[in-house]
Amino acid sequence: MASRSISLWKSIDWVAIIIYLLLITCGWFSVCGASYDYGNPDFLDFSTRAGKQLVWIVCSFGIGFVLLMLEDKLFDMFSYFIYIGMLLLLLVTIFIAPDVKGSRSWLQLGPVSLQPAEFAKFATALALAKYMNSYSFSINKLRHFVGLLAIIMVPMILIIMQRETGSALVYLAFFLVLYREGMSGTVLFLGLCAVLYFIIGIRFSELFIAETPTPLGEFVVLCLILLFTASMLWVYQRKWLLVRNILGVSVLTLGLSFLVSEYVYEFNLVWILWALCIGAACYLFYLYLSQRFLSYALIGLFTITSIGFLYSCDYVFNKVLEPHQQIRIKVVLGMEEDLSGAGYNVNQSKIAIGSGGLTGKGFLNGTQTKLKYVPEQDTDFIFCTVGEEQGFAGASIVLLLFLLLILRLIALSERQHGTFGRVYGYSVVSIFLFHLFINIGMVLGLTPVIGIPLPFFSYGGSSLWGFSILLFIFLRIDAGRSRR
């Protein structure tokens, strides 16, 4: 038993643990700075946020130690049980959780509040790794791919039902894992198309081309649909004649229609683009029926689906999203400024970061954060405290530490002997990347404010424990690999 423990501690990747300790230490000092009140400098007072965060940190160390002491095979054996148990917890949370700022995602356990959505991430990662490690699995088989989608989408749907859209979006990070394991790049391309259609369609929905009745957003998206259709034809069939026919007819027809609209009878050019898109789709379906190449039918289906998605965006934006979510998206897209409302957090955050300059104002000397100008400055917007107190240099060091951790986890994932460890490792990497990119982006006003924490920095036990569990399970799996 003693020799086994010694061997285990030698097998653990101490580089990742050291980076973790550095990040968690920087995070605690950031919470101290963000939550500091003049006249109460006692950070070890457990009634303060700094004191509570210290308790969460100590508990995280305990959780990490316990996970490292477990047999690594247990995570593989009980993956599905953990996943199903977490789904049941997410379902129960919808009905028993109190309403907190419009969402029902926090469970009250005496003096402690926990958010199950944070723990469902490692459960989903384990289930994905287990499923993809199963015998005869192939991501290119439709039934297996549908199974992967179900594993990812079920917790997403349950979390959305808790009215926690931001936490649900994190699960999209798992698609990076699927891409690493052989998923066709077409899926990512379709996702990029959806994002482009949504942004362009919403951003320019109220603008018109010159003084014509043609809405700019619809016009641009429909042109992109035609362009993407022709591009996919070239990529999958390499037939320049078909590409020339679609693009040539589209450009010629659109040019003539513009002249008619300009000098004869003014009308909406979107009508012509509808006809061109539907005509292109019908042409592709005809080619499929005559030549029996499935790619023609799939590209035609892409064209029709893209049109449907474009016009569903307006419904989702105006009917599904909450008013505050609509405002946040409009602020990011530059449609509204709203510095006293939805844009207030981001504006104050950018002022705080900018005021830090190169070297910062020093620990506890940030004026924006000390005077509480930035809402949620110790949770979702904690990076502004780093920028104000430590400046560009300190913020760069923090980002460099995150980069080193992610690169180290990628290296550990690549050296795994089996699919289970590799898939779980890349799941951890993807979740960290998503949180880092979105959180830093929303603090800088580059992405919508969706309320997700910065790993190891944001105040709160649920997020800190969730990220620690994610990391230490992988470190235990990696240690087991090196001992076999």
Explain briefly what this protein structure is.
The chain is mostly helical and 484 residues long. The chain has helices at residues 2-11, 14-35, 49-69, 73-77, 79-96, 116-132, 142-161, 165-169, 174-180, 185-203, 216-237, 240-263, 269-291, 294-320, 323-332, 344-355, 367-370, 383-414, 419-443, 461-483, and strands at 107-109, 112-114.
Question: Would you write up a description of this structure?
Answer:
A two-stranded antiparallel ribbon has the order 1-2. With 484 residues, the chain is an all-alpha fold. The model has no long low-confidence stretch (mean pLDDT 85). Helix 6 runs antiparallel to helix 19 and helix 18 runs antiparallel to helix 19.
Number of strands: 2
Terminal-residue CA separation: 16 Å
Indicate the low-confidence ranges by residue numbers: none
- Specify the helix fraction band: over 70%
**Major sheet description:** 2 strands, antiparallel
Radius of gyration: 26 Å
Mean pLDDT: 85
Report the portion of residues in β strands. under 5%
SSE succession: HHHHHEEHHHHHHHHHHHHHHH
What general outline do the C-alpha atoms trace?
globular
The helix/strand class is: mainly alpha
Number of helices: 20
SSE diagram, text form:
Blueprint (H helix, E strand, L loop, with lengths): L1 H10 L2 H22 L13 H21 L3 H5 L1 H18 L10 E3 L2 E3 L1 H17 L9 H20 L3 H5 L4 H7 L4 H19 L12 H22 L2 H24 L5 H23 L2 H27 L2 H10 L11 H12 L11 H4 L12 H32 L4 H25 L17 H23 L1
Antiparallel strand pairs: 1-2
Helix pairs in contact: 1-20, 2-3, 2-18, 3-20, 5-6, 5-7, 6-7, 6-19, 6-20, 9-19, 10-11, 10-14, 11-12, 11-13, 11-14, 12-13, 13-14, 16-18, 18-19, 19-20
